[in-house]
Amino acid sequence: MYNSKISGLGYYVPDHVVSNDDLTQLMDTSDEWIQERTGIQERRWVKPGSGETTSSMGVKAAKIAIERAGIDKNEIDFIVFATLSPDYYFPGPGVTVQKELGIKTVGALDVRNQCSGFVYGLSVADQFIKTGMYKHVLVIGSELHSHGLDKTTRGRGVSVIFGDGAGAAVLSRTEDTTKGILSTHLHSEGEHAEELSLIAPGMGKRWVTDILADNSEQDESYYPYMNGQFVFKNAVVRFSEVIMEGLNKNELTPQDIDMLIPHQANLRIAQFIQKKFKLSDDQVYNNIQKYGNTTAASIPIALTEAWEKGKIKEGDTVVLAAFGSGFTWGSAIIKW
Ligand code: COA
User: Fold this and answer.
1) What mean pLDDT is predicted for residues 219-230?
2) Does the beta carbon of 32 sit less than 6 angstroms from any atom of ligand 1?
3) Which CATH class is domain 181-335?
4) What is the spatial distance between Cα 321 and Cα 302, in angstroms, rounded to a whole number?
5) Which candidate in 12, 20, 59, 221 could, as Cys together with 199 as Cys, close a disulfide (CB 3.0–4.6 Å)?
């Protein structure tokens, strides 16, 4: 058996900064409301007409991660791409990344687990490496939310939260089984699938011909729906459970955590977890203030930033934890 370790990290966010005040030009909201409820001050949205896509942002993050891993792109054995905002309904962006990077015909898998997509993707990559099947797996989380949000007052409960961006990690084989990804823990509860969902492009509720025939501007099913308070209540419980599950599995306690990178759902959720586990500010990394919730990209962006700032050092115990639409949630315990 081998372990997998993160050998390279990268992220990319569009230049275009959208502040809370900018949003007040589009909808009835305020900087005060957004900051008080979510902690978000600004987010990045791709500039309309820039040609930026979920996969193009993913490619930019991936190039940095591959370079930092110190490998040639042709050493990548497999691609895992997590997103809820693919360029096309099908095929998923994994194959676009394969093409854009000019990587030989390796497999490309698309993961549809929304906010926990990166942790799910990491877990899949980890299994492939642990069994010896692959040496280097590229895992990307990328989202282009801004094209799909209802930016009117009707959609303000959702649209102020989400931002665009991408993060990537290269997972590489190591023979030192005391290091790298120690364990991953994945869960779901499909009973709550519609509490945070985007119904319309799916084939389950209505046929495309019905949607075209309706052609109604009032049709909200093309926009994401979120039962915010219900999501919040579930998130704080599941985050706590899945972090403890990972710690227990590795005979660790919350005080052993050197760095917790929670999915950047809402600063209030992260602060709740921090308080519950009695963690200091140095033990938790948040950047939702700058980027909003970038869903599958949020953990790899935050992990890369924390690493770039020297907040993660060799030998550190790093915990990743996510919760989101599905509901799905998960954690990863990493010895750096
Ligand atoms: N600006 C101003 N007012 C807003 C608003 C906005 N952007 N969005 C909603 N409101 C209003 C609502 O219309 C409502 O008004 P009313 O009382 O007159 O009806 C009021 O604010 C309260 O709305 P509510 O939805 O109950 O707010 P909340 O306290 O639950 O906060 C969230 C909303 C979304 C910030 C909060 O529920 C949340 O963060 N949930 C978790 C979200 C999350 O983590 N999602 C990602 C999971 S991966």
Assistant:
1) 90
2) no
3) alpha beta
4) 12
5) 221
